[in-house]
Structure formats: C-alpha cells, structure tokens
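Dear colleagues,

As part of the handover before I leave the project, I'm documenting each prediction I ran so the next person doesn't have to rerun anything. This entry is a single chain, and its sequence is reproduced below.
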Amino acid sequence: MSDTLAARASQLQEVKHSRFLAQASRADNADEALAFLREIGDPAATHNCWAYRIGQEYRSSDDGEPSGTAGRPILAAIDGQGFDRVMVVVTRWYGGIKLGAGGLVRAYGGAAAECLRLAPREPLVSLATVELACPFDDLGHVHAALTAHKAVKQDEGFDESGARLRIQLPVDRLDALKSQLRDATRNRVRFVGAG
C-alpha cells in the first residue's frame, strides 16, 4: 500500500550556488499534475524539471537538462519514498558552476527525496462502489453495518420491495460488510453491482 501527500510540501537546497526548489502536490490524474506544474513553474528559472506517479502511469521531464539527469531521478525519489498520486517539480536557478551529469542526478533526486521525506503523508485507500437492495425491515441493520465498515452512502432509493443503496467503502472492508449483512438479515440483502 502506498501513501500520498496529506498537503503540499516544498524544500529548498543549494548546490554549488545553484538553487533547487522541490515542490510536491497530490495529483489524482495527469491533468491535475500538469496543472500544478503550470501553477508553480517559474518561467524565469533555468529549468522546471518534474515527474509524477499515478498508479501505473508516470511521466517525467528533464526540461532542457541533459537526458536522464532530472526527471528520472525525481521519479525515482517518488518511488523510493513510497508515494503514489504525487507530482514533484524541481525548479533550478543556475548558479554559474556546472554540476556534471552525476551532480545533476544527485541534486534533482536529492531535492525531491528530501522534500518527500519531510512531507505530510496519508495512506492511499482503495475504494469500492457497490449497490445493494434490501427489504424495509432490514434498513436498520444495513445502516448500522455501513457505519461499522466506514461505508459512505452515495445514493438511496425506494420502491415497493424495499430500499436500494449505492455505497462506497474501503475495498478491504467489502467482504466483512457482506458477511455481517448476510448474518444480520438472514441473507436478505442482495449486492447488485460492484465497481
């Protein structure tokens, strides 16, 4: 299980007179990641290098630095710190001393890793959305079970046969919820869809 950021984070480091500002934000999709880059990238800086990891999707950019010296080390820092759904931008203001390829890798990767190491974390919880149907007499059992399993009711409808609810809950609680409702209602609750 990975973590994501609980809040934005930043870390400024200086390496041989060049300043490296690492800034990180949660990003649940590529559009959010690139919007963060547009928001905080400094057009007056020498480079705005970046990387994001969103599940199996990832991208990185060296933004004019030699190939592989900035974006990939930033991505390696995201993965190395155990983060997902995160975008990191490292902005560099050149200080007049060339760092060489190894120095750039260490500077970009190090700034990103230190930023993430100090960042506030929160566990990334996978959610399931399911629909269930139950007779009116079992609604009390259903609502009690939803609370016990951290389920959030998204929609509820009624017809002559009872209630139909769409709920969202942590994936790892779904089997326990089904089991509790089966036992509490003598198997009268029907799960009609999962997503």
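Helices lie at 30-40, 71-80, 100-118, 139-148, 174-184. The first strand starts at residue 3 and ends at 5.

All the best with the project,
I.
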